[in-house]
Amino acid sequence: MSVEQDKAEIFVGRLWNNPSLSGLSPLQKEEQLLQFLEINSGTLQPTLNSPAFFPDYSWSRILELLKQSLSDFANKSLSPLYEAILEKKMDFSFTVHMAHRSSSPSAVKNQLGGFLNTLSGRMNSRKELAGPLMGVGTGMIDRYMERIFKRQKYISFELRKVQRLKMSSNEVTDLVKATMLIRPSVQFFAPGGQNSGSGRNLLLISPTFAGKVASEAGKTLSFMPYAVVKAGVNSALSFQDNPYMESTARLAAVFSHRCRNMKPGMKVDRGAESSDKSWFNVARKNYKFYGFDLDMLMELHGIAAENGW
Amino acid sequence: MKKRFISFLETVVTLAIVLVLLQTMAEDILVLSGASWTIRRVFLFTGFGFDLFFTLEFLIRSWNALSRRSFRRYITRENGWVDFAASIPLLVFTSGPAFFSILTGAAFAGSGALIGLLKVVKAVRMARVLRLLRLLKIFKRIRFADSVMVQRHTVRIVTTAASTLIFSVTIIGTVFALTDYTGTENAWMMDQSAAIVSLEERPDWAAGPDNAEVWGKSRPSVMMLKDNDWTLYARNSDDYFAEYFGPGDYAVRQAGSYALWFDLKPSAVSQSKLNLTVFLSTLAVVLLIMVTYSPHFAITISDPVNVMIRGLKEKSYNLEVSIPSEYPDDDIFRLGAAYNDEYLPLKERNNSEDTGGGALDISLDDISDLLGT
Q1: CA-closest candidate to residue A224, choices A89, A135, A114
Q2: Which residue has the higher pLDDT, B107 or B13?
Q3: pLDDT by residue (tens digit) across A269-304?
Q4: What is the C-alpha to C-alpha distance for residues B40 and B183, in angstroms, rounded to an integer?
Q5: Tell me, what's the pLDDT at B314?
Q6: Domain ranges across chain A
C-alpha cells in the first residue's frame, strides 16, 4: 500500500468513525460520505492538497483515492454483515414450499450470498441494498410481520388468500426478506448501473423491463424459486399500474424504501410523531409517486401508531 | 476574566435572593411565634443588609444600563422595574427606618392622634410585602425550560400574575391602613384610643398603684403606665419587656401627666399573617404556572414549532408534528397539519429525485479538527 493510500485510509477512517454517523449501516455511511466528499469538494480541496495530505495530486485523483478507501471500509463491514444476515436473520426453508429447481435451502442461501456480493459491486445496486440490509439486519421486518399476522387484516389476507402462500408466518417473513434482497437487481441490470451516485434515482420500471431483469436475475439465482426472483424485481413496478403484482413484492417495495434512510435509535423530539409512523403517513400521501399499495400503507401506519414505532 | 467575574456576581445575587426570601419568611414566622427581640433584631438587621445590597445592585445595573444607553430597555424589558420595586422603596420605607429606630432605641411616639400614628405604622409594614417581588427576580434567573420562547412567556405570565397580586395587596392594604381599621385589629385600636380618652377625662382612675393596677388590667392594649417616670402599672416585668419588646413593638403616648405604653404587637402579628399568606399564595401561583402552564405551552406551541423548524432546515429530518386530538383546530396545529400533509410529502419526493446530497448527517463542522479549521 502506497503512502498516499495510507493517508487516504486515515482520512476516510476518521470520517467513517465520526460520531454523527453512528447507527448508520455501512452502505448508508458510504452513501453519505460519498455525497459529503462531492458536495464539500470546494472546502476539502485546499486542505487535502496541502503538504500534510496529497500535495502533488489533482482533485480528481484525490477523490478517486478517497472513494476507493471508502469502498474498502464499506466492503470490510459488508461481508460480515451479509454473513450475519443470511445465517442469523433468515431461514430459507420457505423455498421447500415453492416450485423451484430442486435445491436445498443452504444452497439457495449460499447463492444469494454470492448474488449480494455481485450486487454490491455496482454502485447503483449497491446503494439500493442499503434499505433491504437495514430492514433485515435490524429486525424491523420481523416486528412488522409478526403484527401483520396477529391482526389478520388486509396484508395478511393478501399474503395468505390472494398470493396463496401456504407456509408458516416465519417462512412468509423470510420470503419477504429474500424478496427485498433481490430487489436491487433492477438497478444492477439497469443501463448506467455503474453511475456513481448523482442524478435521479430509478424509482419505477415498466413490466417489460421487469420481465427482462427477472429473466437475467433468475439465471444468476438459479437455486432461488423463480417466483421469489420475479417478486423481487416486480417490487419496482407501480402497484397502480400493475394491480396484480405479488403482495410480497408490494411489501418489499414499502419496506425497502422505509429502511433506506432509516436511522435506528433515532431520538424522537418532543412534539413529533415517531419515526415509522411519520414515514408511513408521508408515504400514504406519496403512494402514487412511489407506486405503493395504499391499503398496505394504511395498515402499516396503524401498526406503527399502535406500537409507538 | 471579566465574564467570569460577572458570572460570579450573578451567582452571588442569586444566592442572596434565595437567602432573602428565606429571611423574609423567617422574619414573619418569628413575629407569629412570639420570638424574643434579640432574635428578631438579628433578622431586622439582615433585612436591612439585604435591602441595602439589592439597592446597590439596582443602582449598579442602572448605571451600567445608562452607560450603554439602554436604561429604558433595562427597566421595561429586562424587569428592571422589579429590581427597583424590590429594593429602594423597602430600604427607604421599611428596613431603613426600622434599622435606625433600633440604633437609636426610639419607639413610635408623637404628639399627634394615636390612630393616625398607627395607620402610618401599618402602612409602612404593608410595604414589606414588596419583598416578595424578589421571588420574581430569582424566577427570571432560573432556566427551567429548554425553549427560550417557553421561558420568556412563562416568566412574563408569572411576573404579571405575581406582581399584580403583590402590588394589589400592598396598595389596597396601604389605602385601607391609612383610611380605616377593619377586622380583628379594630377592637384593639379602639381600646387604645379609649384608654387615652378615659385618662384625659378621669385622671383619678389611675391615681396610685392600686387604682392604676385595676385600670391597667381593664385595658388589654396598655402594657405600662407611668406618672412622671414613676411606674404605676406594668403588665409584665422589666426583664420580660427587655427580652420580648423592641422599638416598633410599642407606642408611647401622653395623657395629661401620664405616659402610656401601648402594645403594637397584635398589629405586627396581623401583618405577618398577611405577609405569609401573600408570600405562600405568590409562591403557589408561580409554582402552579411553572408546573402546569409551562409544559402546556411547550406541548401546544414551542414543540410543534421546533419540529417544523427542524423539518424546514434539515433535509433528512422527516418526523411529523404530533397533533393532539384535543386541539386539532388550534392555529399551530392547523399549520402542523399542513406541514405534515403538504410539506413533508413534497420534501420526500424532492429528496428522492435529488441524490445530490443535503440530507446528510455529517457536516464540515463535524470534521473541523481534521481540517484544522
Answers
A1: A114
A2: B13
A3: 999 999 999 999 999 999 999 999 999 999 999 999
A4: 26
A5: 86
A6: 1-78, 90-307
Q: Do A271 and B321 touch (CB under 8 A)?
A: yes
For an interface test with B, give the residue of A187, A269, A276 to mutate (most B CBs within 10 A): A269
Q: How far is A288 from chain B (nearest CA, A)?
A: 11
Residues in chain B with CB shorter than 8 Å from the CB of A36 are: 357, 360, 362
Name which of B302, B320, B349, B364 to mutate to probe chain A: the one with the most chain A Cβ atoms within 10 A of its Cβ: B320
- CA B64, CA B28: separation in Å to the nearest integer? 35
What residue spans define the domains of chain B? 1-183, 185-264
* Distance (Å) of CA B31 to CA A116, B38, B269: 84, 12, 6
Q: Which three cell numbers stand for residue A218?
A: 433468475
Q: Three cell numbers at B205?
A: 382612675
Task: Give contacts of B294 with chain A, Cβ < 8 Å.
Answer: none
pLDDT value for B351: 83
- Rounded to an integer, the average pLDDT of B157-164 is 87
User: H helices within chain B, ranges in order?
Assistant: 2-32, 37-67, 71-76, 80-85, 88-90, 96-104, 114-126, 134-141, 148-179, 185-201, 208-217, 238-244, 265-288, 294-297, 303-313, 331-338, 344-353, 368-371
Q: Give the pLDDT of residue B180.
A: 66
Cα separation, B132 vs B167, whole angstroms: 10
What is the identity of the amino acid at B196?
Answer: I
* CB spacing of A36 vs B360 below 8 angstroms: yes
Asked if residue A108 lies in contact with residue A179, where contact means CB atoms within 8 angstroms, the answer is: no
Nearest to B345 among A11, A39, A285 (CB): A285
pLDDT, residue A197, reads 43
Most confident of A107-121, B131-145, B254-268: A107-121
Segments of chain A with pLDDT less than 50: 193-200
Each residue's pLDDT tens digit, A100-127 = 666 788 999 999 999 999 999 888 888 8
The ipTM value here is 0.86
- Residue B170 CB-density burial (10 A; 0-12 exposed, 13-18 middle, 19+ buried): buried
| Closest residue to B345, CB basis, from A11, A44, A282 | A282
Q: Which of A296, A91, A80 is nearest to A173 (CA)?
A: A91
- DSSP 3-state assignment of A281? helix
